[in-house]
Design a protein that fits this description.
mainly beta; 4-stranded antiparallel β-sheet; 65% strand; Ribosomal_bL21; rRNA-binding; RNA-binding; ribosomal protein; Large ribosomal subunit protein bL21
């Protein structure tokens, strides 16, 4: 059984027991969260596709940790113009463990 869930503006295919890094959410470590925007649920041959979400479906997960991703370097340069800029960015994330898919 798997599901497609939307959180943080992105879509993820999730399976029970999977660990997943999603956009940062405000929840304490070891707390239970419920993801409501389930776009699709598949159980063998039975597939439910929502318009846009599946009614009554949800994903139960546990927050494992919070962290910051790899550094992305932004470099801008204009040749012969004496223009050069460097910047960096590290995106915050929340690691969750999928406990149950409720369809």
């Amino acid at each position: 059984m798997y599901a497609v869930v939307k959180t943080g503006g992105k879509q993820y295919k999730v399976v029970v027991g999977q660990k997943l890094n999603i956009e940062q959410i405000t929840a304490d470590v070891d707390s239970q969260i419920v993801l409501e925007e389930v776009l699709m649920v598949a159980d063998g041959e039975a597939v439910k596709i929502g318009t846009p979400v599946v009614a009554g479906a949800s994903i139960k997960a546990t927050v494992v940790s919070h962290g910051r991703g790899e550094k992305v370097t932004i470099f801008k340069m204009r040749r012969r113009k004496h223009y050069m800029r460097r910047a960096g960015h590290r995106q915050n994330y929340t690691e969750i463990r999928i406990d149950a898919i409720v369809a």
